[in-house]
Write a structure and sequence with these properties.
This protein has about 550 residues and is an all-alpha fold. Helices cover about 75% and strands about 0% of the residues. The radius of gyration is 58 Å and the shape is elongated. Keywords: Coiled coil.
């Protein structure tokens, strides 16, 4: 800023001071409005003497003005308090102005002035000026608190006493506790029990801050006590204040270090305790693991003993069953000779054996039992029995007993039955006059063909098509299909022929009928039938002639 501009501003401020002292209410209000809008230009850029005079005149206007004038003056003073640090020439008037604002009935204005006053004290760098501000402030605090004492019962605004206590609290934080007398301390302490919630909260906060800093309660004021009012030398006051602040800071620092050390020692003890507890917990955990392992080992030993007992029992049972099955195999092959009565006894024994097999395996997996039956020759014995009987003499129990041995069995068991050459006898029964007997024979053929990847004794996969061709099996199954006994018979017969030929050419005589029926099964209600039909159609489609029939009428094999 040039010297000309600075001089012009100084002239304007001098004119403002004259108006604020002698002008009309309207002129004074106009000047205050300008100072409120441009505080940094008219106050912040002024020299110290002019600024001090201007602030004193503003304080004077605050004291004698109406509420609106007080509000504007207070706002100007608060603005200065937030924008600049006071200097010796304007300290007293400036601080008094903020104190007047704290006493304002306007709560918001009072709170803002209290904050500004604390900020001024905190940010003032000079210990000398800081001492002046603290002395003036605590004189006002002392008088205000005494006026609110229960003994005096002064009629002062509530926010004034709250502001005084709050400023005192901040002063204590800044190290000015030396200005708090015994009487003031006691009044504030008693006010912490005030019925007014806000006064009680402010007083309680003051006491807590005092105690937090481990400050001693002030002694009763007497003639021998330190009296700052009797110390006239300002520099001496500042020095005493500075020394006491340094001492207090040192004591606080030592107290903090001591507390920190105590906390660290306590933490170290706690850490050590936790470490011991952790090690103890680990030992207990390890102990539990060892106990559990010991318990598991004992249980495993008991299970091993039980398994050995079961194995011994099973071996005994196996020997018993094998002997029983061997005898069954012999009985099934026994020739029916002698008297009529003797032949009937032998036949009844064979029929009973078939009934026993049905009871043993009907609706049961019992893979091991089936394996014993096949290995002991019972299955081949049944086939021998069927082969020696007239067609009408074959009963449902005869064929059903062979069916249960092949149904839901492992591929290995089915391969062993396949190696017995069962197809000629089973194909023979397809002509049986009783529908149930013929259907069971068809289902048994279908079961035996499900050998998967299992191999024969020669290490080869069973060649079902070659076995069937040796006994004209495909034509006999097709004849059974044409009997049209029921849907289930037709479904099994068509799927069996399809699975038999796969990628080989199906004879022309049956090709159209069989493939057309399999195509109709892709939407069957039975999921197993649906899935089997799709699989077989994909195998048949590898043959050109079969594929042509499959794709007839735009048919596509579903996924």
């Amino acid at each position: 800023m040039s010297s000309t501009q600075r001089q012009r501003i100084a002239n304007d401020i001098i004119q403002f001071i004259q108006i604020l002292e002698d002008g009309t209410d309207e002129e004074r209000m106009d000047v205050l409005q300008k100072l409120l809008v441009f505080p940094k230009i008219f106050i912040g850029k002024s020299n110290s003497q002019i600024k001090s005079t201007l602030l004193e005149v503003i304080v004077l206007n605050y004291q004698r003005g109406d509420n609106e004038t007080k509000r504007i003056c207070a706002a100007i003073l608060n603005g200065v308090g937030n924008d600049t640090n006071p200097i010796p020439q304007l300290t007293q008037s400036f601080i008094h102005g903020l104190i007047l604002n704290i006493s304002s009935p306007d709560i918001l204005l009072s709170q803002k002035a209290a904050s500004s006053l604390v900020k001024v004290i905190e940010e003032t760098e000079s210990e000398l000026i800081k001492g002046q501000i603290a002395r003036i402030t605590f004189e006002w605090i002392t008088n205000t608190v005494k006026m609110y004492s229960p003994l005096v019962k002064g009629d002062i605004p509530k926010n004034k006493i709250i502001g005084a206590i709050n400023v005192a609290t901040s002063g204590v934080k800044l190290g000015f506790d030396v200005f708090v007398t015994y009487e003031v301390y006691e009044i504030i302490r008693k006010l912490s029990d005030s019925n007014d919630e806000y006064i009680s909260d402010s007083a309680t906060l003051f006491i807590k801050n005092w105690q937090r800093r481990n400050l001693p309660v002030p002694t009763v004021y007497d003639e021998t006590a330190r009296d700052f009012d009797r110390i006239h030398d300002v520099e001496q006051k500042a020095k005493i204040l500075s020394d006491e602040r340094k001492t207090a800071q040192k004591e606080r620092k030592e107290a903090i270090e001591e507390k920190k050390k105590s906390i660290e020692e306590k933490k170290e003890v706690e850490d050590q305790k936790k470490k011991i507890e952790k090690e103890k917990s680990a030992i207990e955990k390890e102990k539990k693991i060892i106990e559990q392992q010991k318990k598991d080992l004992e249980e495993e030993n008991q299970k091993l003993v039980e398994r050995n007992r079961i194995l011994e029992t099973q071996l005994i049972e196996k020997e018993h069953f094998l002997k029983f099955f061997d005898q069954m195999s012999v009985d099934l092959r026994k020739q029916e000779e002698g008297s009529d009565e003797n032949r009937q006894i032998i036949r009844k024994r064979k029929d009973d054996i078939c009934d026993v097999i049905l009871k043993m395996f009907h609706n049961q997996q019992n893979e091991q039992g089936k394996q014993y039956m096949v290995d002991s020759g019972v299955a081949s014995g049944i086939l021998h029995l069927i082969g020696t009987l007239q067609l009408e003499q074959v009963t449902e129990a005869h064929i059903h007993s062979l069916f249960v041995l092949s149904h839901a069995s492992s591929p290995d068991i089915r391969v062993k039955i396949f190696e017995m050459g069962p197809y000629p006898d089973l194909l023979y029964i397809l002509k049986h006059p009783k529908k149930n007997v013929a259907q069971l024979a068809m289902q048994t053929i279908n079961n035996i063909m499900l050998t998967g990847k299992s191999k024969t004794k020669e290490g080869k996969q069973p060649d079902h098509l070659a076995s069937m061709q040796g006994c004209d099996g495909a034509n006999k199954i097709f004849e059974f299909y044409k009997r049209n006994l029921n849907k289930k018979c037709n479904d099994i017969a068509s799927l069996t022929i399809g699975d038999l030929f796969r990628d080989k050419e199906i004879p022309k005589l049956m090709r159209e009928d069989i493939i057309t029926h399999i195509k109709s099964l892709v939407n069957d209600e039975d999921k197993l039938i649906r899935d089997d039909s799709k699989i077989i159609l994909r195998k048949l489609a590898k043959n050109k002639k079969s594929k042509k029939v499959i794709e007839k009428d735009g048919f596509v094999i579903p996924e």
